[in-house]
Design a protein that fits this description.
Layout: E1 21-25, H1 30-37, E2 51-56, E3 62-65, H2 129-137, H3 158-161, E4 178-186, E5 191-198, E6 206-209, H4 216-230, E7 236-242, E8 257-262, H5 266-290, H6 295-304, E9 315-321, H7 323-329, H8 331-344, E10 349-355, H9 363-366, E11 371-375, H10 387-391, E12 400-402, E13 408-411, H11 425-439, H12 457-463, E14 479-484, E15 491-495, H13 512-526, E16 532-538, E17 552-556, H14 559-576, H15 584-589, E18 597-603, H16 605-608, H17 626-629, E19 631-632
Helix pairs in contact: 5-8, 7-8
């Protein structure tokens, strides 16, 4: 439909043959009328708005007067009470040549008022005829197809993308790991599609890359909440490392979230990585023992038996908001996470990270990431999609990005109400988390087990009940527990049969003496006095009373006492050195000498070895042979 004051035929070349009808109003000249209608009649029209001619194909032109719809609407006058004659009952009669008497007509013909349509209630609003017509027909019939969709100015909420979720009636028993997190604009197809992530297969790792304030952390929250709305806490669990602005802390109350650790909580960061690594190791063993060949089979089995005492986890997500912090502040964890990324998908571990640039992610790790979301970049030349396409992402609109096909996308807001505002997003996230938590069923995600602030020796021994001490006959039990590790919170032992000596390094008040005290007590508890003897050098008297049985061969609180003890001990150790008559069998069995294992316990060594001398020097020549002669420092 073309409309113009003047018609320039040159600009219509090629289009003219496709115009099937023409309307000509009053023209400026006869030539202009001919170019439109083929006749000069439009030039001779009166100067009256709306007067014109209509020409359809080769038919004759038709004169018409257009309705004026821009004027004020004047409602019709009320005609209530105006009489209108009704029809008279006329009955057919046989035709005859004789006169026929006409029935008298009754004068009391019943009349009824003509019912007119109700006028507009208020005609003082300034509404035009067009406004009234549009108002009357709005909402009736099939809406017209929108060729140009509204711009991606405001992000949708998750409820608009998820008509079916835990908030509206439950989730599927079988985990799908599919969830919509935004919309994709397809202007050439005149539609918008859901931006849906499918993390069930090779695309199970996710990377969200964008400049500061581009919406990376919000996208993470939307992803976590979308999966939480479509899965139970037994199907998916999230363990978050929040190195961004602290926004992930608002999701900690979700039953699907096992832990949220920030940059300052170093222990929790390390324990989080260790915990997910333990899940992979345990699941690898489970797959081997139960003959499970893939995560597809595992998810099917979990749908049949949601609770498994041996494996409380489903698909585990390690979420890292700020990958650069891993490389700069936790460098020792980067290689461990890279290894987990390589092995993880086969056992249900997914890595989800955010970064400011693609260059922050090492190529070996980046190649394993199948789901990539690129938001606005600080430098479009860093884009994996292309500099030109990346530069078209508008600034100042967090959540806007580009798909790998060059289509614009908009990430949804992590809220479950219908408000498309970011002004109160923190409050909305908290309310959304509460709503999801209230609607979710089942046990929450297992929390990250932390190393305790205080660990009693009895607790370690309880974990080793039945496994320590071992019954070794006449041989001393030289494996002693010293604590629990952070990888699996399992007991840690020191085996003095393999490594005869032991050194504890640490600052003041860090627990060095407590560790030595625990080692001494374990040696005493596990062995009779004829198998283990201890010589204690304790200048500060911090080990007083630690060994008060026959296991104590000597206690030195001063240099002179210690010197005499060590000289005597060195002589005894010299007699244990193998002679020329010792056979290979005796060397292998260490049977050429009899006597207890001797432990020299020193607290602290820096007090013993001074500028005036070192009382322990006589033992130096025996330390390389300590394992053979039963000496331990």
């Amino acid at each position: 439909l073309l409309a113009s004051q003047r018609l320039e035929e040159g600009k219509l070349r090629g289009l003219d043959s496709h115009l099937s009808y023409r309307i000509g109003l009053k023209t400026f000249s006869a030539n202009e009328s001919r170019s439109v209608l083929g006749v000069p009649d439009a030039y001779h029209l009166p100067a009256q708005p709306g007067a014109g001619y209509l020409k359809c194909d080769s038919a004759e032109i038709v004169r018409f007067a257009a309705a004026y719809v821009s004027g004020p609407y004047v409602p019709p006058r009320s005609s209530a009470g105006a009489p209108a004659a009704q029809g008279v009952d006329i009955r057919p009669r046989p035709f005859t040549a004789y006169p026929v008497m006409v029935d008298p007509v009754e004068n009391d013909v019943r009349v009824e008022p003509v019912v007119e349509p109700d006028p507009v209630e208020n005609d003082d609003t300034g509404a035009t005829v067009l406004d009234v017509v549009v108002g009357r027909i709005a909402g009736r019939g099939m809406p017209a197809h929108e060729v140009w969709l509204p711009p991606l100015d405001k992000a949708p909420t998750l409820t608009r993308l998820l008509p079916r979720s835990v908030l509206s009636g439950g989730v599927d028993a079988l985990s799908t790991l599919r969830a919509p997190i935004g919309i994709i604009d397809r202007p050439f197809d005149q539609r918008r599609d859901l931006l849906t992530v499918d993390l069930s297969g090779a695309a199970g790792h996710v990377a969200i890359v964008g400049a500061p304030q581009s919406g990376k952390s919000t996208a993470l929250r939307s992803l976590i909440m979308a999966l939480a709305m479509t899965h139970t806490p037994a199907q998916v669990q999230f363990y978050c490392l929040d190195f961004g602005g602290g926004t992930l802390a608002g999701l900690a109350e979700l039953p699907h979230v096992g832990s949220v650790a920030n940059r300052l909580d170093v222990d929790r960061v390390r324990r989080t990585v260790a915990e997910v690594a333990a899940v992979v190791r345990q699941r690898e063993k489970t797959f081997r023992d139960r003959g499970i060949d893939s995560m597809v089979e595992f998810r099917r089995l979990r749908a049949m038996q949601p609770v498994d005492a041996n494996d409380r986890f489903g698909d585990v997500f390690l979420v890292i908001d700020g990958w650069q912090s891993i490389r700069s502040d936790f460098e020792s964890l980067e290689q461990q996470i890279a290894t987990l990324t390589t092995q993880g998908l086969a056992f249900g571990l997914h890595l989800v990270l955010t970064a400011s640039r693609w260059a922050e992610v090492r190529p070996a790790t980046k190649d394993l990431i199948g789901t990539r979301l690129e938001l606005r970049l600080g430098d479009p030349s860093d884009s994996d999609i292309g500099r030109t396409k990346a530069a078209s992402v508008p600034q100042g609109r967090p959540g806007r990005g580009m798909t790998k096909d060059g289509l614009h996308l908009q990430i949804a807001l992590p809220r479950v109400d219908d408000r498309r505002s970011v002004a109160d997003l923190s409050r909305a996230v908290a309310e959304s988390v509460s709503a999801i938590a209230a609607a979710s069923t089942g046990s929450p995600a297992p929390p990250v087990r932390m190393l305790p602030e205080m660990l009693e020796r009895s607790e370690v021994l309880d974990r080793l009940a039945g496994a320590w001490p071992r019954d070794r006959g006449t041989v001393a039990e030289l494996r002693v527990p010293i604590g629990i590790d952070e990888a699996e919170l399992a007991p840690v032992t020191v085996d003095f049969a393999e490594n005869p000596h032991f050194v504890v390094f640490g600052d003041s008040e860090c627990g060095k003496t407590s560790l030595l005290r625990g080692i001494c007590r374990s040696l005493v508890d596990a062995n009779p006095p004829d198998r283990v003897k201890l010589i204690v050098a304790d200048y500060r008297r911090t080990l007083l009373g630690t060994v008060d049985s026959e296991h104590l061969a000597g206690y030195a609180a001063a240099q002179a006492t210690l010197t005499a003890m060590i000289v005597d001990l060195a002589g005894r150790m010299s007699r244990r050195m193998p002679g020329s008559d010792v056979t290979q069998q005796q060397l292998r069995e260490r049977s050429w000498w009899d006597g207890p294992e001797v432990f020299v316990v020193v607290d602290d060594y820096d007090l013993v070895a001074t500028a005036s001398g070192n009382p322990l020097s006589p033992l130096v020549e025996h330390l390389p042979h300590a394992r053979d002669i039963g000496l331990h420092l």
